[in-house]
Every structure is written in structure tokens, then in C-alpha cells.
Design goal:
The protein is of the alpha/beta class and about 350 residues long. It has twelve helices and twelve strands. The strands form two sheets. Strands 3-2-4-7-1-8-12-11-9-10 form a ten-stranded mixed β-sheet. It has a two-stranded antiparallel ribbon with strand order 5-6. The longest helix is centred in the N-terminal third of the chain and has 16 residues.
Length: about 350
């Protein structure tokens, strides 16, 4: 199902400050202010939430069932209906959206968090790869993204100057960036990707509140209605894919209704500059569309929350009247392997 039989909207969005390290904070301490902020914006309490869904990764946290401890940030009483996805929080939002569509809930709290600084995130993310052929070789996400960037350059679709321009635009639009050590922005990490072409490492959390129909209208005077949402996945083996294309993004966008009418804003989850090139083409975004006014994942990239933040940022622009119809995209896996696309609209003025 991609188009809602029941109106569902994002009515609140909150995120933490993005920090290079949060050694002194537990996940609960990071989450609690964000959850309270989102609920406060909606004028709701934990008792008013019918369904709670979270997104995170035990691999990133370094311990099994870490999300159960994070539930302390939600509150242990009263008992809640709760679920969890082992991926970016954008997919937790999808699950909550489906729950509301079925009529099993009228409100939902969705949150995600990631502490990338706890270990070497480049090593951790190799565990997403095929365990028989790719993972034993330990290619990390930067090396794989560099293969994608090289394919785009060799195909004549971009060059290093264009990638530098994408990096500068995103970082200038975003919040203060997190530190990346002492390496200069024009140093290569893995050629042709330089430091500026790669996402900052940082910790953070985000939360959104969803509500149905009349409940959403009572909570917010301009809800961000989810008009369509869909997610698709590429072949697992990178060797059988054309890395300059993203057919799963195109299909998800088609199913979500992204091409039914023009959008004025697009929040793209493109952790690497080269991936914005691929996504713009797949989503048919022209120069008249404002892309990543928040700075995107190149400005702040809390792993497992960055995709949910794209939906939240798009919704926030609708809430304040800066956008009427926005597209939000989230990705997971190497080289844009899994892609989720949502279309959000404000009330007709």
C-alpha cells in the first residue's frame, strides 16, 4: 500500500544537537529531551500515544537488544504498544504509518538514535554486506561510495568540482558541523571522494509524532499530510547493479505519487556528495526544487536517525509554511541499496 485510505500526518518533529561525541551521555539521556520536545509540540503525553516505534542498530550500539534500554526514555508506565526496526528510523515511521492506516492507532511516536562515535562506524557498517562474498573483504561504506562516485565520473555525469559544490551548499545550509579530526577538507579519504564529500561522524536522535485525520487537525493548524510513501530495495550484490542509477528510488517515488504533481522541496538522504547526483536523476528534480535546505546528511549524519530527520525536516517546512508539497527520501545499506520515498503536503490555503 502506498496511498493512504486514511489521512495521516506528521504533527511534530524534534531532534537533538549533533555532536561529534557524547561520551558522557547514555542513549536514554540523549533521547529524553527529544521525546519530551516532540510530545510537547503536539500537546500530548505518553498516555495519549497509541503506538510507539523506534529505529536503531545493535551493531552500532555494540550490545544486543540495546533498544530495550532506550525505552526508559519513553517511560515504563503506563504499558505501551511498541515495536522496533533494526534500521533507520524512517522505516519505523513507515511501520507506524501502516499501523494508523489499519485503524489500530490514531497517534504514534516514532524515534531513532545513533551513537556513531562509540566505535569505528566504517568497520561497523561492513556488517551490512553479503556475508559470503563481500563482508570477508571488509570494504567499508566510504570505499564502496567511492566506487559509485568513480562510476559517475567515468560516465561523464559529474566531476570533482561539481561534487565540491554539492558539499559546500549542503554544509553551508546545515547546523554547525561536527569535527572530523585534523585532515583538510580537500584531502582524499578514498579517491575520488575527499573529506568534504563524506558525512561527518556524530551522535544524535530524532522523534516525530504522527496523527490521523481530525486528531492531526486538532494538534496542528497545518499538519504535514503523508500523501504517499513506499520503499524498495536494489539487488544485494553490488556487481550486478549499475551504480550510476537508482531504479528502486524511482520505483518508490512512482508508487508514492511523487511524480503526480510538482514538489517544491526535497530532503534527500545522501551521505556522500555523489549520491545526490544519483538521487536527483532518479527523482527528476530540477533546479526549481529546493534540495536539502537543512543541509542534509552532509551537514549532520547521526546513523540510524538521518533518514527520519529528512522526513522531519520536510514536515517542519510544511508546518511553518515554507513548503506546500515536499519529497523526503531515506536510504540504508551501501550505495543507496534500500530507498524510501515519502510525499508530504500542507493544507490547501
Amino acid at each position: 500500500m502506498t496511498h493512504a485510505a486514511r489521512d495521516v500526518a506528521i504533527v511534530a518533529f524534534a531532534q537533538s544537537a549533533h555532536r561529534r561525541r557524547t561520551d558522557g551521555l547514555s542513549e536514554v539521556e540523549t533521547l529524553m529531551p527529544v521525546l519530551h520536545d516532540a510530545l510537547g509540540q503536539a500537546g500530548l503525553t505518553a498516555r495519549d500515544i497509541d503506538f510507539t516505534c523506534s529505529g536503531s542498530s545493535d551493531y552500532l550500539a555494540g550490545r544486543a537488544f540495546s533498544f530495550t534500554m532506550a525505552l526508559d526514555g519513553v517511560g515504563a508506565w503506563p504499558p505501551i504498544a511498541e515495536s522496533h526496526v533494526e534500521t533507520d528510523g524512517a522505516w519505523a515511521l513507515y511501520e507506524a504509518w501502516v499501523k494508523i492506516l489499519t485503524g489500530a492507532a490514531d497517534t504514534a511516536l516514532v524515534y531513532a538514535y545513533g551513537t556513531s562515535s562509540a566505535g569505528d562506524v566504517r568497520d561497523v557498517l561492513t556488517r551490512q554486506l553479503d556475508p559470503y562474498y563481500l563482508a570477508p573483504l571488509w570494504p567499508d561504506p566510504v570505499a564502496l561510495a567511492a566506487l559509485q562516485a568513480r562510476a559517475l565520473i567515468d560516465a561523464g555525469e559529474t566531476d570533482e568540482r561539481a561534487l565540491a559544490d554539492i558539499a559546500a551548499r549542503n554544509r553551508a545550509a546545515g547546523p554547525p558541523g561536527t569535527a572530523r579530526g585534523t585532515r583538510a577538507a580537500d584531502d582524499y579519504v578514498v579517491a575520488p571522494l575527499r573529506v568534504r564529500d563524506c558525512p561527518p561522524i556524530g551522535d544524535g536522535a530524532a522523534a516525530v509524532v504522527l496523527a490521523a485525520g481530525g486528531t492531526a487537525r486538532r494538534i496542528h493548524d497545518r499538519p504535514a499530510w503523508i500523501r504517499g510513501i513506499d520503499h524498495r530495495v536494489e539487488a544485494h550484490a553490488l556487481g550486478v547493479r549499475d551504480l550510476t542509477e537508482s531504479p528502486s528510488t524511482r520505483l518508490a517515488a512512482t508508487r508514492a505519487g511523487a511524480f503526480d504533481a510538482p514538489v517544491d522541496t526535497a530532503e534527500l538522504h545522501a551521505p556522500f556528495t555523489s549520491q545526490e547526483i544519483v538521487l536527483r536523476k532518479a527523482l527528476r528534480l530540477g533546479d526549481d526544487v529546493t534540495v536539502n535546505p537543512s543541509g542534509g546528511a552532509l551537514a549532520a549524519n547521526p546513523v540510524m536517525a538521518a533518514g527520519l530527520i529528512r522526513l522531519g525536516e520536510a514536515a517542519a517546512r510544511i508546518h511553518r509554511g515554507a513548503s506546500d508539497r515536499a519529497l523526503a527520501h531515506a536510504t540504508a545499506g551501501p550505495c543507496l541499496q534500500q530507498n524510501l520515498v515519502a510525499v508530504l503536503e500542507g493544507e490547501t490555503r
